[in-house]
Amino acid sequence: MSDLRKRGGLLLLAVLLCAPPFYLDAFWLRVGLFAMAAAIGAVGLNLLSGTAGQLSLGHAFFLAVGAYGYVWLAGEPGPGLPPALALVLAVLLAGAAGGLFSPVAGRVRGVYLGVATLALVFLGHHVLLTADSVTGGFNGRSVPPLEAGGFAFAAGDPGLTVLGVPFGAEERLWYLGLALSALTWFTARGLLRARPGRALTALRDSETAASVMGVHVARYRSAAFVVSSMYAGLAGVLLALSFRRVVPDYFGLALSVDYLAMIVIGGLGSVAGAVAGAVFVTALPLLMTRYADQLPLVAAPGSAEGAVGPTEAARYLYGAAIVLVLLYAPDGLHGLARRVRARRRPAPPPPDAAGPPRPPAPAARAKERTP
User: Fold this and answer.
1) pTM (two decimals)
2) Which of 206, 205, 199, 319 is nearest to 264 (CA)?
3) Count of CB atoms within 10 A of residue 147's CB?
4) 111 and 55 in contact (C-beta within 8 Å)?
5) Is 347 domain-assigned?
6) pLDDT digit string (tens) for 50-60?
7) Per the annotation, which location comes first and is thus the protein's main one (predicted)?
8) In which domain, by residue range, is 180 found?
9) What is the C-alpha to C-alpha distance for residues 173 and 338, in angstroms, rounded to an integer?
10) What pLDDT, on a 0 to 100 scale, did the predictor assign at position 368?
11) Please, what is the end-to-end C-alpha distance for the chain in angstroms?
């Protein structure tokens, strides 16, 4: 019965997630697209940091590899490959970049690995600014639209309407984002429930105990870094398709810090927690920008100097959320939701009230037969 209820809940959730393009405007669809791209990248970082216990500050570098890899492979100048093939190759390119760095990840841990991955962000930003022929330099490059089977995920066909709703770029990309997010969700959960996930969890808890149980420490560390890089590359491709233009300044240290905030707020080691944290951190500044004129102590974009803008206010808020999570809910939003569900479950009946009355003990029965 519980499996049937779970499948029904998943079906209902799928129907609800397919409905927004028919009812919401382009702003809310863009918010959802950015949140889905962030969720894909956060799931990858959570596999690395939350499950394997590897600190990484270079996640923005691998997002940039995926985004610019797709733009160069599918665009001009570049090979001009079919966009669907360019997407797959961009993800593999991000995985290859993670593979080149994986020997370092296999031998370094903790804050030392964090500093090593931090160098990737600065190195990648320098390359993006100087390799003009590939990246377009400071101004970036426009993103070729994705096409699959003759169907373009762009606003190039104004005649496409579904149930009376014109489908532009945001509406089409919404379903692409849903498909990629579902792929990320199920592959990550399957990985965590299988032997590699258990090995990574054992590695996080105790390297000595994991090695005694037969876990190859360096190999699993390297593999976790490669898989996390591939998730980041896929997130970078979806982010580029949503923005429609990629610029180097977006893929800086602030983006890596945002991803760390996502997994801490959502809950380390949890796929659902990573998605929840990504939605929170991504949507908050966009919503505050839209409603800045209605919020107290928040100035609209472009206001006088000294005023707190919506982006800065959003960073203050989720910075405070990180402090509150660390103090009162170390397992994040996912752990908090799990505890709330546990409290709402009905308490089991007391032992005396369950089942038929127990027969008397043998000593008591013998005492009753004694005249």
Assistant:
1) 0.86
2) 319
3) 15
4) yes
5) no
6) 888 888 888 99
7) membrane
8) 23-154+164-251
9) 32
10) 47
11) 54
Helix ranges (H only) for the chain are 2-18, 26-45, 59-74, 83-107, 110-130, 132-135, 169-193, 195-205, 207-212, 217-243, 253-266, 271-290, 310-328, 332-344, 362-369
Ramachandran area for residue 140 (φ above 0: left; ψ -120 to 50: alpha; else beta): left
Look at residue 44 and tell me if it is in a domain. yes
- C-beta of residue 63 within 8 angstroms of C-beta of residue 255: yes
Cβ contact 51:269 at 8 Å: yes
The Cα 240–Cα 86 span in angstroms is 13
> Residue 270 corresponds to which tokens in the numbers above?
């949890």
pLDDT at 300: 65
One DSSP character per residue, 240-258 reads HHHHSEE-GGGSSHHHHHH
Report in angstroms the alpha-carbon separations of 159 from 28, 168, 193.
22, 10, 45
The helix/strand/coil state of 56 is coil
Question: What type of residue is 259?
Answer: Y
65 within domain boundaries: yes
What pLDDT, in 10s, does the model give residues 55-76?
A: 888 899 999 999 999 999 998 8
Residue 284 lies in a domain: no
Cβ atoms of residues 301 and 309 within 8 Å: yes
Question: CA–CA separation, 188 vs 41, rounded Å?
Answer: 12
Number of domains in the chain: 1
Q: Do 265 and 337 form a contact (C-beta atoms < 8 A)?
A: no
